[in-house]
Design brief:
Length: about 290
Amino acid sequence: MKIRSNGLGFLLAALAAMPASANAADKSAYTLTNPTPDSLLRDLTTDRPDLTESPFTVDAGRIQIESNLYGYAMSRPDEDGVTTESHEFAIINIRVGVTHHTEIGLVWQPYSVMKFRPKDKVEQTKAEGIGGLVLRGKLNLYGNDTFDKPGDTALALLPFILIPTDRGNGISPEDVEGGLIVPFAVVLPANFGLGLNAAVSAIKDDDGKGYHAEAFLSAALGYEWNDHFGTYYEIAAILGTDDPRGDTLLLGTGFTYAINDNTQFDGGINFGVTPASDRWNPFVGLTRRF
């Protein structure tokens, strides 16, 4: 979710000169304008359906579209006793491979509806419209093409920036926010895999006078039942919020189904544990690589 800084640009240039692993094909010649051939494509990996981002990038010159076709969420009451019901439609994450270890992306929420339900139902209000734009850049530090046997690991940097689109509609954020996610993954024995995320974000204060730091931590344990079907179990927390109800803690589970080498269907549900967390959040999605 971010536009590259000068420091990140320097790091990208330095890594571009690094030789490929002896255990993987050298794909450094492929770029945005010279796409990676089908025979050298990595297995399809996605940044969904769990909240834990993957450390793997899209192959150079390829486009991957990941969509949350529909998501629903019901909150717990806030300090004023208001609960929020949310419907999200067709949130799209467009990922574009730039080199064999870098990608850029854009996340857009085209339409969402939020209903605010106070104790007095007569006073119910609604907000609807488009959400913000999230610009992302992912840099795989290692493991993109050497992640196949127990003990193998992968690590990446994923900076992002969130940009308002329609301030005041109740859906889009009203201020620019951003941060950095560090995704890590390890292959475990017996078809298991573990993904870990640590992130920090600069979030606008509720009073609008400044920013505060929020931390995001998550762990997702996945299991591949066969070449097509997989499941996961996840725990995620958002710490340091200025929500008077405290921090957010979620438990989630879901599945992925590979229709073919370039298409995946998925679904899942998150359950909130703490007062600041949504009660539940089911969703379904689809990914297609071109």
